[in-house]
Design a protein that fits this description.
Helix content is 46%, strand content 19%. The model has no long low-confidence stretch (mean pLDDT 97). It is of the alpha/beta class. The protein is globular, with a radius of gyration of 15 Å. It has a 4-stranded parallel beta sheet with strand order 2-1-3-4, sandwiched between helices.
Length: 120
């Protein structure tokens, strides 16, 4: 069965956001075993979550993992994204969705931040 990964970020009015997100997704795609890896945005940018799910569905993907590329466990993680996923589960009953935890505290990320600060 084909597996797909959606890396879901917040989105922004700043075009550079998409360039950076594309770099992340391309790197992630090289390091994971998913056959399909797509980017999506919660708001202000395209593709949105529904568009990414539709693209994976058209490709024959049946298992979709959504990774929220968010540091903190705020309302988007607790309410907004689960609500969107509930609607997508109704629209695509043949698909299996897994909603991963957001990044939260990650010691490696703290090390990167500390290294960047020390380069100042």
């Amino acid at each position: 069965m084909k597996k797909g990964l959606i890396v879901l970020a917040h989105g922004s009015k700043v075009a550079e956001t998409d360039e950076i997100m594309t770099q992340y997704v391309e790197t992630i795609q090289k390091k994971v075993t998913f056959e399909y890896v797509e980017k999506a945005y919660l708001q202000m940018m395209s593709p949105d979550l529904a568009e990414a799910v539709g693209k994976l569905s058209e490709a024959g993907v049946k298992d979709i993992v959504v990774f929220p590329f968010f540091l903190f466990n705020g309302n988007h993680i607790k309410e907004d994204i689960p609500s969107e996923l509930d609607a997508l589960k109704i629209k695509y009953p043949e698909l299996n969705f897994t909603f991963m935890s957001n990044i939260g505290y990650e010691p490696k990320l703290a090390e990167i931040v500390a290294e960047r600060i020390e380069r100042l």
